[in-house]
Design goal:
Elements (H helix, E strand, L loop, with lengths): L1 E7 L6 E5 L2 E5 L8 H14 L6 E5 L5 E6 L1
Parallel strand pairs: 1-3
Antiparallel strand pairs: 1-5, 2-3, 4-5
Length: 71
């Protein structure tokens, strides 16, 4: 499954919010040295109840807008 994700790093609360145009993921981690991407993979793995290895960021490594594949 391919999912459009908007990432909000540096948030006070960690949560995943579903909407018509994809997901918005709020993360504690900052967008520094890939910390937010690592936290995003973990958050989506928990949300979809899959392992972290089944979550891959396809596009948007350095952007707030990402395309993620859940295997």
């Amino acid at each position: 499954m391919i999912v459009q994700v908007k990432v909000k790093p540096g948030s006070k609360v960690e949560k995943v919010v579903s909407s018509d145009d994809g997901l918005t993921v709020y993360l504690h981690a900052r967008a520094h040295d890939g910390e937010a991407n690592t936290a995003l993979v973990k958050a989506l793995a928990d949300y979809y109840d899959v392992s972290k290895s089944q979550v891959e960021i396809l596009r948007g490594q350095k952007s707030h807008q990402k395309v993620v594949e859940i295997i």
